[in-house]
Amino acid sequence: MKYLDNVFIEMENINKVFPGTVANDDISIKVKKGEVISLLGENGAGKTTLMKILYGMYKADRGEIKIDGKKVNINSPQKAKKLGIGMIHQHFTLVPVHTVLENVLLQLNESYAPKYVENKIKEIGNKYELVVDPSALINELPVGFQQRVEIIKALLGNSKLLIMDEPTAVLTPQETEKLFKFINEFKSEGNSVIFITHKLNEVMEISDRIIVLRDGKKVGSINKKDADREKLTQMMIGREFDFEVKKNEATIGKKIIEVDNVSIVGETGNQILNNISLNISAGEIFGVAGVSGNGQEELADAIAGLKKISNGDIRLMGKSIVNLNIREIINSGVGYIPADRHKVGLVLEMTVEENLILKSTYGQKYFNKYKLLKSKKLKIDTEKKINKFNIKVSTSKALVHSLSGGNQQKVVVAREVTLGDKLLIASQPTRGLDFGAAAYVKRTLEKEKSKGKAILLISNELSEIMELSDKIGVIYEGEILDIFDRNEADLKKIGLLMTGVRGESFEK
Ligand SMILES: Nc1ncnc2c1ncn2[C@@H]1O[C@H](COP(=O)(O)OP(=O)(O)OP(=O)(O)O)[C@@H](O)[C@H]1O
Ligand SMILES: [Mg+2]
């Protein structure tokens, strides 16, 4: 018997309070069979919390969940899986040193013969174009393939509803396209997806219906065909929003950073960076375009002193910095927003205040001559940053661990943007940020540039590179294939170079 217009799951009057925050305030949603829902809302709106309740990771303070009209008690992810609910988290839950097969075996509730599971991985891979080699090590797979493993894990558990929390934040446009193909295929079999993203173009492409949250409350639900960018923005933030980032024509000053024939050879002799040369002057944003995994993170790490180079030289204001330690490089005026905030950007068990001054402490700024913290100054500075970057947090003493994903990113950006007074390396600076916050960060980069900083911008989002950069270098397999001035940058050419197609072949 069909229940209520094919409704699969209902969450009714869900409430969840954390100390100081009402994360979910009386939220009710329905998910139909064969429906893709986008869950939209600003950073800290309560999206992840609501989904963790549905997946049995959090217990709601109030409210109930029904599946096919029957009340269920989802008190653990195991229970959720049994009921046909799978979740793909933004931070993957894979063991990096194990193979794909081992990772899949690890999470199965019952024990199966490895051969059987291996065949299943291949079968699912072929069916949904999610092919991955079962014997590959996770840490050798690109992020898009790691995500495939997460999806396969969920599908092996016979999920009928897949929850995806910002799955595209770490994907390249090509990988996103593949993911969307999978979602459409999965949905056509009568399955459902709840999809979280901050990118409105993705929302408009993939969803049947959009549910908008604001400050822990459900603002509304709207069919895709009735939605547009303006309407969704209005629902999310309660007003219209100016997306435009004004480009500042800064005066180009002297050379700040020179990367001179830099190479990095990996442990197995593989060439990670191959003879890279570029320089950035004061008042200039240099954008690195490229498919992730082509050496851009290593380049950033090398300049920041986190990775040793095998050959070449890196000079800051004319002086070599390759033999300086990280502390000395920071003190010479280099700020770094790393791509992976959990690994290197933040100490999750420390407070927001502590994270905001992490790097400044040695610099004495917050200490008096008896080595005691100047707590009043610290408090004022912290509150300024929290306001400026609109970091949603009940108190500056809250642990970073308790912040929503986007608000964690804001803490890193707030700290680093003002830190490096010569060079700022910004790697995926807007990843996970809602569009208001993303626009603020972009405006801040523009402002810092016009103050005379040199900025190295690394981003998966070609549109972001095009929007902000004065010069654009395309990186492919550890090499900078070409460098363009912004006004002569041609999107098509850059796109081709990103996939390794060089000059001569353009005309074909
Ligand atoms: N474990 C926790 N302890 C305390 N507070 C929490 C916890 N998890 C979430 N919160 C708070 O609940 C609110 C909602 O957070 P949630 O992670 O659901 O937001 P979100 O909509 O997913 O945001 P984002 O887009 O930034 O990921 C935030 O204010 C957050 O600080
Ligand atoms: Mg979230």
Key descriptive features of the protein:
508 residues, alpha/beta, Rossmann fold, 3 domains, six-stranded mixed β-sheet, 17 helices, 33% helix, globular, binds adenosine-5'-triphosphate, binds magnesium ion
Summarize this structure briefly.
This protein has 508 residues and is α/β, with parallel strands linked by helices. It has helices spanning 47-54, 77-82, 100-107, 114-128, 143-156, 173-188, 200-206, 229-237, 296-304, 326-331, 341-345, 352-357, 375-388, 405-417, 435-450, 462-468, 491-498; strands at 7-18, 21-32, 36-40, 62-67, 70-72, 85-88, 161-165, 192-196, 209-214, 217-223, 255-265, 271-281, 284-289, 311-316, 319-320, 334-337, 423-427, 454-458, 471-476, 479-485.
